[in-house]
Amino acid sequence: MKRTATANWKGTGKEGKGLVSTASTVLNNTQYSFNSRFAEGVGTNPEELVAAAHSGCFAMKLSFVLVEAGFTAEDLTVTCSITFVDGAITNSHLALKGRVPGISKEKFEACAADAKANCPISKLLNTNITLEAQLV
Q1: What are the phi and psi torsion angles at 74 (to 5°)?
Q2: How far is CA 59 from CA 12, 73, 90, 114, in A?
C-alpha cells in the first residue's frame, strides 16, 4: 500500500506560498506559508499535519492493542502537540483521554505505552515522544 500527497511551492521561503493536496482529496490545494507555519496565518503547515497523523495513527493503534487485550474503547481522544525548535521537531506529545469499560488504570497505561511505541508514525518520527494517558 502506498499513500501520496503533493506539495507545490512558489517564491521565497518567507514571501512565497504553497499548496498541499492528498490523493484522497481531503486536502485539496490547501494553502500553507511562512505565516501559517511560524505565525498565525491562515492555512496549514507541516508540523500540524504531522500532529494530525500522529494522533490519528496512535488512536487507531491503541484501539487494536485494546482489542487484543480483550477490551473495546468507547472513546479515545488524542491531542498531539508537535514542538518545532530551530528547524527541527524536538518532541511529539500525545495527550490521551480514554473511556474503556472494565479496564484497570495500569492495563490502560500499558496498552497506551504499547501503542505509543508501535504505531507506524511513532516509528517514523526521529524525535522524543511523550505520552500522558488519562482514563476517564
Answers
A1: -80, -35
A2: 37, 10, 21, 12
Would you give the DSSP letter of residue 44?
B
What is the dihedral sign for C-alpha 102, 107, 113, 115? negative
Q: Of 109, 102, 111, which Cα lies nearest the Cα of 134?
A: 109
Contacts for 41-44 with beta carbons within 8 Å, 24 or more apart? 44/20
The grid coordinates of residue 49 equal 499535519
Domains of the chain: 5-38 (no CATH), 46-135 (3.30.300.20)
Answering whether pTM is above 0.90, one says yes
Per-residue pLDDT tens digits for 4-51: 999 999 999 999 999 999 999 999 999 999 999 999 899 999 999 999
How far apart CA 29 and CA 130 sit, in angstroms, is: 32
